[in-house]
Amino acid sequence: MDAAPPILENETPLGYNERAVSLGGYETMLKELLDMLRAKSPLRDMLNEFTQMIEKTEWMFDASIKVLLHSRPTQEVEKEIYSKDKEVNEHQRSIRRKIIRHLTFQPRADVPACLVLMSVVKDAERVGDYCKNLFELATMFDIPLDRGRYKTPLKDLAEQVENLFSKTRKAFQWSDEEMAHSIIAKSEAINDQCDMLIRQLITDNLPTKKAVAYTLLARYIKRVASHLNNIATSVVTSVDNLDFSDESKDPHEQE
């Protein structure tokens, strides 16, 4: 896993547009807001903490998939899975506390940037929850997910999602719109593949236990991809459209 580059003190905004990020600036793009995050010390600290959330959930996802595929023993990662999940939750609470404290002293100037952070940290926390669900799936079902005809498509989907983590972190941290669009396209393709696989499982003549385990696995992989999609989408959308990126895709998947 790539280490996140630190946000340096001497980094400056790429082009902060004060009018665009005012309280009335509903067409604000995240690129300008992230320039603010990188430039201002309190916001920069929050951004660094958010990148830690992505790094930790990436580890959780990788470890959980390896346990599911029987390439890593459960007891080797169980303690750290739950430890990192708690750390991710604490990061979310910490960022929220810092936002409230920051806005107490800066009641107007940084509201849009703080709204963006509030939104994406929620997505990162949900990614952690689903990674924990993936691990618990391995402990709940004594199903050999390391073999059978569904091994290859499920493993391929997991690998595709794992490749999105570092890209999502970098796209958000450096407001890389081209990379964000690439992540969005890839995550939507993953979601379509998950839906297709679930439809196949519904019509397949599998034992109930296997069908449930495989369906949950596909569902959790899809939700991880969707939340990474939300984070990437925030790079290329306006503040008022945050959290709505996948509503039109699947209204039954909203949380």
Features:
single chain; 255 residues; mainly alpha; Methane Monooxygenase Hydroxylase, Chain G, domain 1; elongated; PhoU_dom
Instruction: Please report the first level of CATH classification, the CATH class.
Output: Mainly Alpha
Overall structural domain count: 1
Low-confidence segments: 4-29
The helix fraction, in percent, is 55-70%
DSSP E strands, number: 0
Kindly name the structural category: mainly alpha
Using only C-alpha atoms, the radius of gyration works out to 19 Å
Structural features, described:
Residues 51-137, 155-234 form the PhoU domain. One of its GO terms (biological process) is intracellular phosphate ion homeostasis. InterPro entries: PhoU, PhoU-like_sf, PhoU_dom. This is PhoU family transcriptional regulator. The chain is mainly alpha-helical. The protein has one domain (30-253): Phosphate transport system protein phou homolog 2, domain 2 (Methane Monooxygenase Hydroxylase, Chain G, domain 1). It contains 7 helices and no strands. Helix 4 (111-140) runs antiparallel to helix 7 and helix 5 runs parallel beside helix 7. 40% of the residues are buried. Mean pLDDT is 82; it is low at 4-29.
